[in-house]
Amino acid sequence: MPLDFYATHSTFSDPGELAHRYADLPHDPAQLARISRDLVIHRMEGGLFGHTHPTDRLHNDAETRYIDDILRIIVERDDAPLSQRREPGDRFVGTCRDFSLLHCSFLRHIGVPARIRSGFVDYFDPNGPSAFHNDHVVTEYWDEQRGWLLADAELADPFMTDHWKIDFDPMDVPRDRFLVAGEAWRAIREGGADQEAFGLHPPHEGPFWGEWFVAGNIRLDLAALNKVETLLWDVWGEGEEEGGEPGGPLSEPAREFFDRVAPVVSGDVSFTAARELFAKEDSLRTPNTVTSYAPFNGPSRVTLR
Protein backbone atom coordinates (compact mmCIF):
# COMPACT_ATOMS: atom_id res chain seq x y z
CA MET A 1 0.00 0.00 0.00
CA PRO A 2 2.66 2.65 0.88
CA LEU A 3 4.65 1.93 -2.27
CA ASP A 4 1.51 2.06 -4.40
CA PHE A 5 0.66 5.43 -2.84
CA TYR A 6 4.03 6.94 -3.75
CA ALA A 7 4.06 5.40 -7.24
CA THR A 8 1.09 7.52 -8.34
CA HIS A 9 0.89 11.24 -8.97
CA SER A 10 -0.20 13.92 -6.57
CA THR A 11 -2.01 17.06 -7.66
CA PHE A 12 1.39 18.76 -7.65
CA SER A 13 3.40 16.14 -9.59
CA ASP A 14 0.82 15.28 -12.27
CA PRO A 15 1.89 16.38 -15.79
CA GLY A 16 -1.76 16.46 -16.83
CA GLU A 17 -2.30 17.25 -20.50
CA LEU A 18 1.46 17.27 -21.03
CA ALA A 19 1.91 13.63 -19.97
CA HIS A 20 2.62 12.75 -23.61
CA ARG A 21 5.90 14.68 -23.20
CA TYR A 22 7.07 11.86 -20.90
CA ALA A 23 6.59 9.12 -23.54
CA ASP A 24 10.21 8.99 -24.70
CA LEU A 25 11.91 9.46 -21.33
CA PRO A 26 14.27 6.73 -20.07
CA HIS A 27 13.32 4.54 -17.11
CA ASP A 28 16.59 4.88 -15.24
CA PRO A 29 16.31 7.05 -12.10
CA ALA A 30 19.79 8.52 -12.59
CA GLN A 31 19.07 9.50 -16.18
CA LEU A 32 15.79 11.07 -15.10
CA ALA A 33 17.62 13.09 -12.44
CA ARG A 34 20.01 14.41 -15.12
CA ILE A 35 17.08 15.38 -17.34
CA SER A 36 15.51 17.29 -14.45
CA ARG A 37 18.86 19.04 -13.88
CA ASP A 38 19.05 20.00 -17.56
CA LEU A 39 15.56 21.53 -17.64
CA VAL A 40 15.85 23.67 -14.49
CA ILE A 41 18.35 26.25 -13.25
CA HIS A 42 18.39 27.47 -9.66
CA ARG A 43 17.55 31.10 -8.96
CA MET A 44 21.01 31.46 -7.40
CA GLU A 45 22.96 29.72 -10.17
CA GLY A 46 22.96 32.40 -12.88
CA GLY A 47 26.52 33.50 -12.25
CA LEU A 48 27.74 29.91 -12.02
CA PHE A 49 26.45 29.32 -15.56
CA GLY A 50 27.54 32.73 -16.87
CA HIS A 51 23.91 33.79 -17.22
CA THR A 52 21.75 36.61 -15.90
CA HIS A 53 18.15 35.63 -15.19
CA PRO A 54 15.54 38.03 -16.60
CA THR A 55 13.88 39.72 -13.64
CA ASP A 56 10.40 38.40 -14.38
CA ARG A 57 11.68 34.79 -14.46
CA LEU A 58 13.79 35.27 -11.34
CA HIS A 59 10.75 36.59 -9.47
CA ASN A 60 7.97 34.45 -10.89
CA ASP A 61 9.07 31.03 -12.21
CA ALA A 62 9.57 29.50 -8.76
CA GLU A 63 6.08 30.61 -7.71
CA THR A 64 4.77 27.83 -9.99
CA ARG A 65 3.39 25.09 -7.75
CA TYR A 66 2.31 22.40 -10.19
CA ILE A 67 4.36 20.30 -12.61
CA ASP A 68 1.95 20.74 -15.51
CA ASP A 69 2.47 24.51 -15.29
CA ILE A 70 6.24 24.09 -14.94
CA LEU A 71 6.24 21.92 -18.06
CA ARG A 72 4.26 24.53 -19.99
CA ILE A 73 6.89 27.12 -19.18
CA ILE A 74 9.69 24.78 -20.23
CA VAL A 75 8.18 23.83 -23.59
CA GLU A 76 7.12 27.40 -24.36
CA ARG A 77 10.78 28.41 -24.10
CA ASP A 78 12.06 25.42 -26.07
CA ASP A 79 9.70 22.89 -27.68
CA ALA A 80 12.38 20.18 -27.97
CA PRO A 81 11.86 16.78 -26.30
CA LEU A 82 12.31 16.93 -22.55
CA SER A 83 15.35 14.67 -22.82
CA GLN A 84 17.21 17.41 -24.71
CA ARG A 85 19.39 19.64 -22.53
CA ARG A 86 18.30 23.27 -22.43
CA GLU A 87 20.62 26.23 -22.50
CA PRO A 88 20.59 28.18 -19.21
CA GLY A 89 18.47 30.95 -20.75
CA ASP A 90 15.76 28.47 -21.76
CA ARG A 91 15.46 26.67 -18.43
CA PHE A 92 12.84 27.02 -15.74
CA VAL A 93 14.27 29.30 -13.04
CA GLY A 94 13.47 27.43 -9.85
CA THR A 95 14.68 26.16 -6.50
CA CYS A 96 15.73 22.80 -5.08
CA ARG A 97 12.07 21.94 -4.68
CA ASP A 98 11.54 22.19 -8.45
CA PHE A 99 14.46 19.94 -9.41
CA SER A 100 13.21 17.36 -6.92
CA LEU A 101 9.50 17.54 -7.71
CA LEU A 102 10.18 17.23 -11.46
CA HIS A 103 12.40 14.20 -10.80
CA CYS A 104 9.69 12.79 -8.54
CA SER A 105 7.10 13.34 -11.28
CA PHE A 106 9.23 11.46 -13.83
CA LEU A 107 9.70 8.56 -11.41
CA ARG A 108 6.03 8.29 -10.47
CA HIS A 109 5.10 8.36 -14.14
CA ILE A 110 7.08 5.16 -14.76
CA GLY A 111 5.72 3.56 -11.59
CA VAL A 112 8.74 4.06 -9.32
CA PRO A 113 7.64 5.07 -5.79
CA ALA A 114 9.00 8.54 -5.05
CA ARG A 115 8.45 11.47 -2.70
CA ILE A 116 10.22 14.72 -1.93
CA ARG A 117 11.86 15.36 1.45
CA SER A 118 12.62 18.65 3.20
CA GLY A 119 15.71 18.92 5.34
CA PHE A 120 19.23 20.29 5.67
CA VAL A 121 22.55 19.55 3.95
CA ASP A 122 26.20 20.21 4.79
CA TYR A 123 27.57 20.04 1.23
CA PHE A 124 26.79 23.40 -0.37
CA ASP A 125 30.18 24.90 0.34
CA PRO A 126 32.78 24.80 -2.46
CA ASN A 127 35.44 24.33 0.22
CA GLY A 128 33.93 21.03 1.34
CA PRO A 129 31.50 19.94 4.08
CA SER A 130 30.34 22.88 6.17
CA ALA A 131 29.30 23.21 9.80
CA PHE A 132 26.23 25.08 8.54
CA HIS A 133 23.35 22.95 7.27
CA ASN A 134 21.48 24.62 4.41
CA ASP A 135 17.75 24.28 3.88
CA HIS A 136 17.28 21.87 0.96
CA VAL A 137 14.87 19.48 -0.77
CA VAL A 138 15.74 16.15 -2.42
CA THR A 139 13.90 13.21 -3.94
CA GLU A 140 13.49 9.97 -2.02
CA TYR A 141 12.88 7.01 -4.33
CA TRP A 142 12.41 3.28 -3.93
CA ASP A 143 15.18 0.91 -4.98
CA GLU A 144 14.07 -2.72 -5.16
CA GLN A 145 17.33 -3.97 -3.66
CA ARG A 146 18.09 -1.28 -1.09
CA GLY A 147 14.80 0.39 -0.18
CA TRP A 148 14.42 4.17 0.09
CA LEU A 149 17.36 6.19 -1.24
CA LEU A 150 17.90 9.94 -1.35
CA ALA A 151 18.68 11.54 -4.73
CA ASP A 152 19.76 15.13 -5.31
CA ALA A 153 18.82 15.98 -8.89
CA GLU A 154 20.43 19.38 -8.49
CA LEU A 155 23.80 17.58 -8.42
CA ALA A 156 23.10 15.31 -11.41
CA ASP A 157 25.38 17.32 -13.72
CA PRO A 158 29.12 16.51 -13.15
CA PHE A 159 29.77 20.24 -13.46
CA MET A 160 27.80 20.70 -10.23
CA THR A 161 29.43 17.84 -8.35
CA ASP A 162 32.84 19.25 -9.28
CA HIS A 163 31.85 22.76 -8.21
CA TRP A 164 30.61 21.65 -4.80
CA LYS A 165 33.36 19.01 -4.40
CA ILE A 166 30.81 16.23 -3.91
CA ASP A 167 32.36 12.95 -2.79
CA PHE A 168 29.26 10.73 -2.94
CA ASP A 169 26.81 9.44 -5.54
CA PRO A 170 24.03 12.06 -5.98
CA MET A 171 21.61 9.15 -6.45
CA ASP A 172 22.49 7.85 -2.96
CA VAL A 173 22.98 10.87 -0.72
CA PRO A 174 24.31 9.73 2.69
CA ARG A 175 21.75 10.19 5.44
CA ASP A 176 24.28 12.07 7.56
CA ARG A 177 24.85 14.61 4.74
CA PHE A 178 21.14 15.31 4.27
CA LEU A 179 19.21 15.39 7.54
CA VAL A 180 15.46 15.26 7.02
CA ALA A 181 13.76 17.99 9.04
CA GLY A 182 12.73 15.66 11.86
CA GLU A 183 16.30 14.43 12.26
CA ALA A 184 17.59 18.01 12.29
CA TRP A 185 15.10 18.85 15.04
CA ARG A 186 16.20 15.84 17.08
CA ALA A 187 19.87 16.71 16.54
CA ILE A 188 19.18 20.10 18.14
CA ARG A 189 16.84 18.97 20.91
CA GLU A 190 18.32 15.58 21.78
CA GLY A 191 21.85 15.71 20.42
CA GLY A 192 22.90 19.17 21.52
CA ALA A 193 23.50 20.49 17.98
CA ASP A 194 23.67 24.27 17.63
CA GLN A 195 20.35 25.56 16.27
CA GLU A 196 22.27 28.36 14.55
CA ALA A 197 23.79 25.73 12.27
CA PHE A 198 20.45 25.01 10.53
CA GLY A 199 18.63 27.36 8.18
CA LEU A 200 18.33 29.10 4.86
CA HIS A 201 21.32 31.31 5.68
CA PRO A 202 23.70 31.56 8.62
CA PRO A 203 22.31 33.88 11.34
CA HIS A 204 24.57 36.79 10.35
CA GLU A 205 23.04 36.79 6.84
CA GLY A 206 19.38 36.93 7.82
CA PRO A 207 16.77 35.65 10.27
CA PHE A 208 15.92 32.37 8.55
CA TRP A 209 17.54 29.83 10.84
CA GLY A 210 17.10 27.98 14.10
CA GLU A 211 14.37 26.02 15.83
CA TRP A 212 11.44 27.92 14.34
CA PHE A 213 12.82 27.37 10.81
CA VAL A 214 13.44 23.66 11.38
CA ALA A 215 9.90 23.33 12.80
CA GLY A 216 8.51 24.87 9.61
CA ASN A 217 10.46 22.34 7.57
CA ILE A 218 8.95 19.51 9.62
CA ARG A 219 5.53 20.77 8.59
CA LEU A 220 6.61 20.86 4.92
CA ASP A 221 8.17 17.40 5.12
CA LEU A 222 5.09 15.83 6.70
CA ALA A 223 2.92 17.38 3.99
CA ALA A 224 5.22 16.02 1.27
CA LEU A 225 5.08 12.55 2.86
CA ASN A 226 1.33 12.87 2.32
CA LYS A 227 1.91 13.96 -1.31
CA VAL A 228 1.13 17.63 -0.68
CA GLU A 229 4.25 19.20 -2.17
CA THR A 230 3.75 22.92 -1.55
CA LEU A 231 6.16 25.76 -2.19
CA LEU A 232 8.82 26.11 0.47
CA TRP A 233 7.44 29.46 1.59
CA ASP A 234 3.83 28.32 1.90
CA VAL A 235 2.77 28.57 5.56
CA TRP A 236 -0.32 27.33 7.38
CA GLY A 237 -1.58 26.23 10.76
CA GLU A 238 0.35 27.75 13.64
CA GLY A 239 3.42 28.31 11.51
CA GLU A 240 2.97 32.07 11.28
CA GLU A 241 2.65 32.49 15.03
CA GLU A 242 5.25 30.05 16.35
CA GLY A 243 8.17 31.97 17.68
CA GLY A 244 6.86 35.38 16.66
CA GLU A 245 9.54 37.14 14.64
CA PRO A 246 11.67 35.01 12.26
CA GLY A 247 14.57 33.62 14.22
CA GLY A 248 12.85 34.22 17.53
CA PRO A 249 12.55 31.52 20.18
CA LEU A 250 9.76 28.95 20.05
CA SER A 251 7.41 28.72 22.98
CA GLU A 252 7.94 25.74 25.26
CA PRO A 253 4.58 24.18 24.26
CA ALA A 254 5.63 24.49 20.60
CA ARG A 255 8.96 22.79 21.34
CA GLU A 256 7.19 19.95 23.13
CA PHE A 257 4.75 19.60 20.24
CA PHE A 258 7.55 19.20 17.68
CA ASP A 259 9.39 16.86 20.05
CA ARG A 260 6.40 14.55 19.53
CA VAL A 261 6.09 15.18 15.78
CA ALA A 262 9.77 14.87 14.81
CA PRO A 263 10.09 11.09 15.37
CA VAL A 264 7.17 10.47 12.99
CA VAL A 265 9.10 12.04 10.10
CA SER A 266 12.51 10.62 11.07
CA GLY A 267 14.33 7.39 10.27
CA ASP A 268 12.27 4.63 8.69
CA VAL A 269 9.06 6.61 8.37
CA SER A 270 5.90 4.76 9.32
CA PHE A 271 3.45 5.37 6.49
CA THR A 272 0.49 4.81 8.79
CA ALA A 273 1.80 7.18 11.47
CA ALA A 274 2.58 9.93 8.94
CA ARG A 275 -0.87 9.63 7.38
CA GLU A 276 -2.65 9.61 10.75
CA LEU A 277 -0.72 12.58 12.13
CA PHE A 278 -1.41 14.65 9.02
CA ALA A 279 -5.10 13.78 9.17
CA LYS A 280 -5.70 14.49 12.86
CA GLU A 281 -3.57 17.58 13.56
CA ASP A 282 -5.22 20.73 12.22
CA SER A 283 -2.02 22.77 12.65
CA LEU A 284 -0.07 20.32 10.46
CA ARG A 285 -2.61 19.41 7.78
CA THR A 286 -2.43 21.65 4.70
CA PRO A 287 -5.67 23.66 4.28
CA ASN A 288 -7.20 24.74 0.99
CA THR A 289 -5.77 28.24 1.40
CA VAL A 290 -2.24 28.98 2.58
CA THR A 291 -0.18 32.12 3.12
CA SER A 292 2.65 32.35 0.63
CA TYR A 293 5.64 34.45 1.69
CA ALA A 294 7.09 34.82 -1.80
CA PRO A 295 10.73 36.00 -1.55
CA PHE A 296 10.40 38.59 -4.31
CA ASN A 297 6.66 39.21 -4.58
CA GLY A 298 5.68 39.48 -0.94
CA PRO A 299 3.01 37.66 1.09
CA SER A 300 -0.35 36.65 -0.36
CA ARG A 301 -3.17 34.24 0.33
CA VAL A 302 -3.27 31.39 -2.20
CA THR A 303 -6.00 28.80 -2.70
CA LEU A 304 -4.54 25.46 -3.75
CA ARG A 305 -6.05 23.19 -6.36
Automatic annotation (TrEMBL):
List the SUPFAM superfamilies: Cysteine proteinases
| Ranges in a coiled coil | none
Chain ranges of the Transglutaminase-like domain: 88-155
Q: State the protein's name.
A: Transglutaminase-like domain-containing protein
